[in-house]
Amino acid sequence: MSVQGRIGRAGGGRVKRALGVQAALEWAFRIEKAQLELPPPKDVTEEGFGFGLEYVLLQRAALGCKIDGGQHKIGGYTHEDAEVIAATVAGMPDSLGGKRMAIRVAELARAGLTPDWMPGAVPRCVPVEVKRNQHGERAKTLVVGTERVLTRGKWRTVEVLACPVTFSPHPQQIASARRGYEDWWRALGWVREGLAAGGMLREIEVTGAMPKVRPWALHRHSIQPSA
Fold it and tell me: I need a labelling partner for 171 at 20 to 30 A (CA). Which of 10, 74, 98, 123 fits?
């Protein structure tokens, strides 16, 4: 779901704009250019690195202070709601992939992309190597043994050839891509729940809308021939 334009910066009486979590992430990272402020490693003291944005946001919320924007986007203002969203993503728990997943969520949102779950991918048996010449192409074969055969009354030794094959794309490659999509989907669910529970967004409201949980299952069903 693409996000166009900006959210207005009117007063507190304005009706909030409803966005699904993926659209809200794309608005924050792609339109508002929010930056991901990842917390320092657990074995590093806060004194040397300062507090992360998530900590600052939580402290300001507790004190009832307004969040200042504009420190990240060059030549413009970063909407405070976008910074809240970025801070939430930065707090991704280790159980969902931690910093690595936070970066992935932010990068995909900034590019306006959904993880590639390899739509329509079906493992096919293909030669490992193909030879090409002026006569066309053919699978490369290997000598795997010899056999004695009787030809025209004489015994001859002939080579036994075999064509090495593989599956492309490999089933493990497809499974890995789809696990990655499911991990991303769970991460978005966590962000959505965190934003709803935090109640810190001023001008947008994150709805319950989520990307399809397993789009390949729906895709497979849609291409099955009718009876």
Answer: 98
Q: What is the pLDDT along the chain (227 residues), one digit of tens a residue?
A: 445 444 444 444 578 899 999 999 999 999 999 998 876 666 544 443 334 445 545 544 544 444 444 455 555 688 999 999 999 999 999 999 999 999 999 999 999 999 999 998 888 888 888 888 888 788 888 888 888 988 888 898 988 888 888 888 889 999 999 999 999 999 999 999 999 998 899 999 999 999 999 999 876 555 454 44
Report yes or no: 211 and 109 within 8 Å, Cβ to Cβ: no
Which region, left, alpha or beta, applies to residue 152 given φ > 0 means left and ψ of -120 to 50 means alpha?
A: left
d(CA 84, CA 180): 25
Report angle CA 140, 176, 103 to the nearest 5 degrees: 125
169 preceded by a cis bond (ω within 30 of 0): yes
Nearest-angstrom CA–CA distance, 90 and 103: 8
A 10 A CB-CB count for 86 gives: 26
170 vs 186: CA distance, rounded Å: 25
Pick the closest to residue 86 from 21, 39, 35 (CA basis): 35
Read off the pTM: 0.69
Domain boundaries, the chain: 17-118+170-222, 124-168
Query: Could you give the CA distance from residue 89 to residue 29 in angstroms, rounded to a whole number?
Result: 11
Find tokens 């002026």 and name the residue. 134
